[in-house]
Amino acid sequence: METVAELLKRLRPNLSVGQYGKIVTDTSEFMEIGYGDVIRVGGLHYLVLRDETERSFGIEDPKYWVKRCVLLETGDRRILKLVFHESFPLRLGKLTVKCYRSPEKESRVLELVRGDWRFMQGITARDDHANPVRVLEVIRGKRIDEFVAGLEVDHRTYFFEIFPGLFEKFMGACEAIAFLHEHGEKHGDIRRDHLRVESGTERFRWIDFDYTYDFYENPFGLDLFGLGSILTFLVGMDIYHLGELERLGFSDVISNLTSEDFSLLYPNRVVNLKKIFPYIPDGLNKILLHFSQGAELGYETVAELLRDMESARAQIMKGGNLS
Amino acid sequence: MNFKKILIAVDASENSMRAVRYVGEIVGSSPGFEVTLLHVAVSPDRDLFPDEQVWKAKKQEMQANMELFFRKSRTALIEFGVPSQNIHERYIQSGGGSLSHQILGVQESDGFGTIVIGRRGVSKEEEFLFGSVSNKIVHYAKGCTVWVVE
């Protein structure tokens, strides 16, 4: 069998590599696959650069089953997700949800969304042990919250000049999730860091589809809550916790808040943002209130959420309550 | 609708057994009642299991639990005086989607005048995220009486 050094010399002679590892055709033991190794799947060769990491509470959390790679045949960057089954408790404010990581589910979703730019793109290749290795294209861009945080404007300017465009794009992102649900699939992990704003195009694109959970009566409830949380963030340009309102200059708002103004799952997070920013249109604020402790009824489907967003859109485009 | 034609929607839980006992106490040996225990079986999601064998074993375990629950329920109803020939069991495989709508589908197609369901009592947050079969049945039921046993 060809060595890594020979392979590199043949396919990427100009690529400088600090160490030559081994060629891997069975990825079951992903902890043993590291820098300098080459994963061969689907007839192609992927040089491993490093393990992917996820920033969580300021700490870099390595994801040993996710490898940043170079596809030696073309020189393109790829992310390889190897098979890792786990279940774990996901804390959502007051509730704990049992989540599962399912490679097969992610493979199905990738197949379903092939060619649809609203989602990350990738294919599944089976290794010698029949493990479904997901080969993903890299989306260059920022997480939605980093993108918004990088806008150096005050909220009023943001809300009237930038938010309308983001709202339109977010409606498209919600339609993308509705598409998954119509096909019986859930995203599974809708959070701000799983919605990317692509560099250059500024398109909103969903990533990471391998989470699942076993809710049967309301299988898409968690996805809906995730969409509501991102929308709340986009409207507010940030998340507003009760304890931070004074520091942020909203001391006068605090006495007007009741428990009904806070998030259904996160009791310190304000979702009735109109109390902080009175120019937020009623129709838009009412959507946010569906995710509040005061909500009488929640959304059952993304289609219901989208209907309300569609109704709110005209007012947003006209410039909120100031017009 | 014939309100004496009772459909008890059950899983293998304590809440369901409370619903069964409640029906037993109300109906007892009164004439004209037909009691059907309905279980809409949801196969565990294959995505949650690393291999086929463990998944199949889980499915078999769930089915065995339900069969045991049916036997216990029948015994309980008979003890309350419900004639054995008026007790029926139905085990149907979920066709996907909401359980409440599937239960209501059986109620409507077979003309049950009363639906009975146990409830453990969920918080607002839980209902938002996970849904509530009993609340949805109360919300969407038409042309029948709904008993929710807590």
CATH architecture annotation name of the largest domain in chain A: Orthogonal Bundle
Strand composition percent of chain B: 15-25%
Low-pLDDT residue intervals, each spanning 5 or more residues of chain B: none
Please name the fourth-level CATH homologous superfamily of the largest domain in chain A.
Transferase(Phosphotransferase) domain 1
Care to count the β-strands of chain B? 5
Main β sheet profile of chain A: 7 strands, mixed
Domain module count of chain B: 1
| CATH class call of the largest domain in chain A | Mainly Alpha
Gyration radius over CA of chain B: 16 Å
Number of helices of chain B: 5
CATH architecture label of chain B: 3-Layer(aba) Sandwich
Secondary structure: elements and pairs:
The complex is a heterodimer of chains A (323) and B (150).
Chain A: H1 4-11, E1 23-24, E2 38-41, E3 44-56, E4 59-71, E5 77-81, E6 86-92, E7 95-101, H2 103-112, E8 122-126, E9 132-137, E10 141-143, H3 144-149, H4 155-182, E11 195-198, E12 204-206, E13 211-212, H5 221-236, H6 251-254, H7 282-289, H8 302-318
Parallel strand pairs in A: 1-2
Antiparallel strand pairs in A: 2-3, 3-4, 4-5, 5-9, 6-7, 7-13, 8-9, 10-11, 11-12
Helix pairs in contact in A: 4-5, 4-8, 7-8
Chain B: E1 2-9, H1 14-27, E2 34-41, H2 52-79, E3 87-93, H3 99-110, E4 112-118, H4 124-130, H5 133-140, E5 145-149
Parallel strand pairs in B: 1-2, 1-4, 2-3, 4-5
